[in-house]
């Protein structure tokens, strides 16, 4: 479980970024207007690491259908999303589960300052929930990355389209500009996963990878 001190430290850190050049680099004006959201094509099998994570952190996986399934992307909400992505990426050291824990795959929070892709995204979601954004609108997502390997990102669903928070880039990108192949994501309606059909997105020319 993340300590209150750790959460406050990270929240304070990304709050400082609000006035920094990095957080100001992405503005609402730079985003596509009304980009099409990604569509699901049926159910998908959950990952074992996710299922084990949910056994330990049930509240992180519970779906409250009374919550909004999309975020109203106000300038403040966008600033918060961008800042959390940048702050967590700069604060956590990327290590594989094999090097970190001696196992192939395990999901959790990077309490010791180290983690792999899903750990980055789980922390981002927790901090965004702490900042008041609806958990239901933020879904863990499995993709195939630019080198053909499995990778986890956080898909943030908004009224302006679906955006991706990724530990590989400081930019928050529309899902269709990442260059990833989309395999599946957490359902917004029940505890489980939905298939994204292996849809291929176009690589962006502006991502800072």
UniProtKB/TrEMBL annotation:
The keyword Transmembrane helix does not apply. Keywords: Signal. Residues 1-25 form the signal peptide. The keyword Hydrolase does not apply. It comes from the Bacteria. InterPro entries: Transglutaminase-like_Cys_pept. It holds the Pfam family Peptidase_C93. This is Putative transglutaminase-like cysteine proteinase. It comes from Microvirga lupini.
């Amino acid at each position: 479980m993340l300590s209150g001190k750790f959460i406050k430290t990270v929240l304070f850190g990304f709050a400082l970024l609000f006035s920094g050049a990095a957080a100001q680099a992405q503005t609402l004006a730079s985003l596509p207007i009304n980009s099409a959201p990604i569509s699901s094509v049926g159910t998908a099998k959950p990952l074992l690491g996710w299922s084990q994570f949910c056994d330990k952190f049930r509240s992180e996986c519970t779906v409250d259908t009374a919550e909004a399934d999309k975020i109203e992307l106000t300038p403040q909400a966008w600033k918060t999303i961008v800042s959390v992505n940048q702050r967590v990426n700069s604060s956590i050291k990327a290590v594989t589960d094999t090097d970190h824990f001696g196992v192939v795959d395990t999901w959790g929070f990077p309490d010791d300052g180290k983690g792999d892709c899903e750990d980055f995204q789980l922390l981002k979601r927790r901090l965004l929930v702490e900042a008041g954004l609806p958990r239901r609108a933020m879904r863990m997502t499995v993709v195939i990355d630019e080198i053909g390997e499995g990778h986890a990102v956080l898909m943030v669903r908004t009224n302006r389209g679906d955006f991706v928070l990724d530990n590989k880039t400081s930019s928050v990108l529309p899902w269709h500009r990442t260059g990833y192949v989309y395999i599946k994501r957490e359902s917004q309606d029940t505890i489980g996963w939905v298939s994204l059909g292996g849809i291929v997105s176009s690589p962006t020319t502006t991502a800072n990878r």
